[in-house]
Write a structure and sequence with these properties.
With about 325 residues, this protein is of the alpha/beta class. The chain has two domains: about 210 residues, 3-Layer(aba) Sandwich (Rossmann fold), CATH 3.40.50.300; about 90 residues, Hypothetical Protein Yjia, Chain: A,domain 2. Helices cover about 35% and strands about 25% of the residues. The protein contains eleven helices and twelve strands. The protein has a seven-stranded parallel sheet, with helices on both faces. The protein has a five-stranded antiparallel sheet with strand order 8-12-9-10-11, covered by helices on one side. Strand 6, helix 8 and strand 7 form a beta-alpha-beta unit. Helix 6 crosses helix 7. The longest helix is centred in the first third of the chain and has 16 residues.
Length: about 325
């Protein structure tokens, strides 16, 4: 095993769907910390969106989709990490740390387990911190209904309470009390749009195995994580441009009719007559759309839109999406 100061630190970003993990990742990449970061982005579903929302940078960015990082693709995570080490040893790439952005449906325990049970990885990597981003607006509902949201908070070294601008003071205090019942030892950070000092989450060495074993006694044993079968991901990929008015009408209807069942929806849209990418994302009834950078000349103008939720009729929604074509 390498000396601790020579091991590569790993930061695991977790948090339920829509909490703000990609926003935080972008802040890490934009910060002038003079470190080269290898980024691993994991999404739930066959079509990746988040990796395309990561800011332009020269970082090593690797996408893992079509599965949850704590389930079937965990073996892929091991392969990716070993490949990174080999490339680093052969001077093909250079990186100082790894940041893993997990899907919002991931249990962080098996992700941490990856670095604790594989001797090769244990020798090379050190978990620096598990940072759980909490959606202040919606977390109470998710804690009532979703085991994953509870697991993500329970396993956190650092809890970043995000979307503080959407909370009244008494709501924040009640939320803190509830979360403290789940995890009384985590460090707290508070933010709007994940605007924090990066030094508060990088190089903090807050991961403590003994603490984690008290939470998850089977951490060093083989573990399988099972998702709620009622939750599904529906992806739309379309090369033909979309009509903005039709998209607006459809999304308004969808949010009004299915908002309670929509855990997360996000997309990069090619809108007819618009030279920029249109980014659309939301959680339940809270949504926003904006123009992004211009489409690059060599970049295919393809719309990608993903819905994650329950009680979703894929055939009906696919038909409705097709009706938004220009």
């Amino acid at each position: 095993m390498l000396p601790k100061d020579m091991q590569i630190p790993v930061t695991i970003l977790t948090g339920y769907l829509g909490a703000g993990k990609t926003t935080l990742l972008n802040r890490i990449l934009a910060e002038k910390h003079n470190q080269k970061v290898a980024v691993i982005v994991n999404e739930y579903g066959e079509v990746g969106i988040d990796n395309q929302l990561v800011i332009n940078s020269d970082e090593e960015i690797i996408e893992m989709n079509n599965g949850c990082i704590c389930c079937t693709v965990r073996g892929d995570l091991v392969k990716i990490l070993r490949t990174l080490i080999m490339a680093k040893d052969n001077n093909h790439v250079h990186f100082d740390r790894v940041v893993i952005e997990t899907t919002g449906l991931a249990d962080p325990a098996p992700v941490a387990q990856t670095f604790l049970m594989d001797q090769d990885l244990t020798a090379q990597f050190m978990i620096d911190s598990i940072v759980t981003v909490v959606d202040g607006k919606h977390i109470s509902r998710h804690l009532d209904e979703k085991d994953e949201a509870q697991e993500q908070i329970a396993f956190a070294d650092i809890i970043l309470l995000n979307k503080l601008d959407l909370l009244q003071k008494h709501e924040r205090l009640e939320l803190q009390q509830r979360i403290n019942m789940i995890n009384p030892t985590a460090k707290w950070l508070f933010a709007k749009h994940c605007a924090i000092a990066i030094d508060d989450i990088l190089n903090v060495q807050s991961f403590n195995l003994d603490d984690k074993l008290r939470i998850h006694p089977q951490l060093l044993e083989d573990h399988h994580h099972h998702h709620n079968d009622h939750i599904k991901s529906i992806a739309f990929v379309e090369e033909q441009p979309l009509n903005l008015l039709k998209v607006d009408r459809w999304m308004s209807w969808l949010i009004q009719e299915k908002g309670e069942d929509l855990l997360r929806y996000k997309g990069i849209l090619n809108i007819d007559g618009v030279e920029e990418r249109v980014i659309f994302q939301g959680i339940h009834m809270l949504f926003a759309g904006r123009t992004d950078r211009k489409w690059r000349v060599e970049e295919p103008r393809v719309s990608k839109f993903v819905l994650i939720g329950k009680n979703l009729d894929e055939e009906m929604l696919t038909k409705q999406f097709k009706q938004c074509l220009a």
